[in-house]
Design a protein that fits this description.
Blueprint: H1 7-17, H2 28-51, H3 56-102, H4 104-117, H5 122-132, H6 136-148, H7 158-181, H8 188-205, H9 213-242
Length: 243
């Protein structure tokens, strides 16, 4: 067993063994889940239509329409959602900014009381609050973090959210459609490629969870396969009944 001999070595050992993953998922989480959503929805749509024994041309048009409609819907939804959230946050920041300008002493006292509630000695809490309140922008950032739980310098971009959602959904929705675009006439290549993609997406999701890659991959494979099987059955039933 290795023995840590110096404080520097101890610091390096702590640094190397005390790193954390991005629990918010960063760009990976929305990108993977967007692709997974596109995969499952377009696969289910295409298998449902294929169950009704439609023509090859109709199936391809259905897949393309599902890709376009889903991607635009995801992009519009993400843009509206993130823009609304950002507008709400900016409105709250404006309120806090006005309070800091009109009642600086009260806001400084509020910050000191917050630190005291967390176990900081009163005198030290008041001094820390006083020093932090010297810079209005720094004070705003601290109050926003402590009271609202947000970082004013790191607000999400509606445009980035919309573009990334559109691209990831379209990429996922393209997989079950790709074999048909390359000349396939049977359903099984599209299903096979989509299921492989689902397993891959599930395995990548394991990077932002505590699950193993194979468990996450198999779980998503099972869920996507179940959705495809159910829609194929529904398409077959109604195709026969209507026909």
């Amino acid at each position: 067993m290795a023995i840590i001999e110096t404080e520097a070595t101890l610091h390096e050992a702590h640094r190397d063994n005390h790193t954390h993953r991005d629990v918010n998922g960063g760009w990976l989480r929305p990108a993977v889940f967007g692709a997974m959503d596109g995969l499952v929805s377009n696969l289910a749509l295409m298998t449902g239509v294929a169950g009704g024994e439609v023509s090859h041309r109709t199936l391809v048009i259905t897949g393309l329409a599902g890709l376009a409609a889903g991607a635009f819907s995801m992009a519009a939804g993400e843009y509206t959602s993130v823009a609304s959230q950002r507008e709400l946050v900016e409105a709250e920041l404006d309120i806090e900014r006005r309070e800091l300008r009109k009642h600086p002493a009260d806001e400084e006292r509020e910050l000191a009381e917050l630190y005291m509630s967390r176990g900081v000695e009163p005198a030290l809490a008041r001094e820390v609050a006083r020093q932090l309140s010297r810079d209005p922008e720094q004070a705003l950032e601290i109050h926003a973090r402590e009271e609202l739980g947000i970082d004013p310098s790191d607000l999400p971009s509606p445009t980035v959210a919309a573009v990334s959602s559109f691209a990831s959904f379209a990429l996922g929705a393209l997989l079950p459609l790709l074999p048909y675009l390359l000349g396939a006439s049977a359903l099984w290549p599209a299903v096979l490629l989509a299921l492989v993609g689902l397993f891959g997406c599930g395995a990548v999701v394991a990077k932002v969870t505590a699950r193993s890659w194979w468990f996450s991959g198999l779980r998503q494979l099972a869920l996507g396969g179940l959705a495809a099987a159910l829609t194929f059955g529904i398409g077959s039933f109604f195709g026969t009944a209507i026909g």
